[in-house]
Design goal:
The protein is mostly helical. It contains 11 helices and no strands. It folds into 2 domains: 54 residues, Arc Repressor Mutant, subunit A, CATH 1.10.10; 147 residues, Orthogonal Bundle (Tetracycline Repressor, domain 2), CATH 1.10.357.
Length: 206
């Protein structure tokens, strides 16, 4: 009976803890963030936080793992025989939407990589490298099959990742440069269309 209460609101409280943790970890880093701070911001007790995640480390990694799973869903085609050009377009659009939904995750990961944090190697080897490897192989196979023009796959993936990462990280700068809200539906729709068109041009054969 003692566990019945946490389970009753389990899904909602767990989601809120993850949302708040993503923001605070991104802003203050792993070492600078306390579980008490996250629990208070999420409106839950520390006991409920630890019920869901057991340790601060587990919470931190779950924040990252959830993002990686969502990223995998748009990176890796869900069916065989996918239209490669259409998949590039869908990825550009889906990646933009994903980063806007998880706007703090890029800061969190950038902080971990730049500061050579405790989880840097794990994030690189287990989370990021497999996604980059898949993207490179996807382009290589498309080139080999005559679908894509010969481009450097790694450079293409870097450019694609950086275009959205910097847009999200530097939103105040882009608002100043654009003279309008960079997150407005009109601006985002135009940006996604332009990004998709430009990246497709890079790989489209003459």
């Amino acid at each position: 009976m003692g566990l019945a209460q946490p389970r009753a609101g389990g899904t909602e409280s767990r989601r809120e803890i993850l949302r708040v943790a993503e923001e605070i970890f991104a802003r203050k880093g792993y070492s600078g963030t306390s579980t008490r701070e996250i629990a208070e911001a999420a409106g839950v007790t520390k006991g409920l936080l630890f019920y869901h995640f057991q340790t601060k480390e587990r919470l931190y990694l779950t924040v990252i793992e959830n993002m990686v799973k969502a990223f995998q869903a748009i990176v890796i085609p869900q069916t065989d025989g996918v239209d490669r050009m259409e998949h590039v377009r869908n990825f550009v659009v889906g990646y933009t939407d994903l980063l806007l939904e998880h706007s703090h995750i890029q800061k969190l990961i950038a902080r971990e990589l730049m500061d050579e944090g405790k989880f840097q190697r794990k994030i690189i080897d287990e989370y990021l490298k497999p996604l980059y490897d898949f993207g490179v192989e996807f382009l290589k196979s498309g080139i080999a099959d005559g679908v894509f023009r010969p481009v450097d796959p790694f450079t293409f993936i870097q450019m694609l990742a950086a275009s959205n990462t910097m847009y999200v990280i530097a939103l105040p700068l882009h608002e100043r440069l654009l003279g309008q809200n960079p997150l407005s539906p009109e601006v985002l729709a135009r940006r996604k269309e332009q990004l998709a068109r430009n990246f497709l041009r890079l790989v489209q054969k003459d």
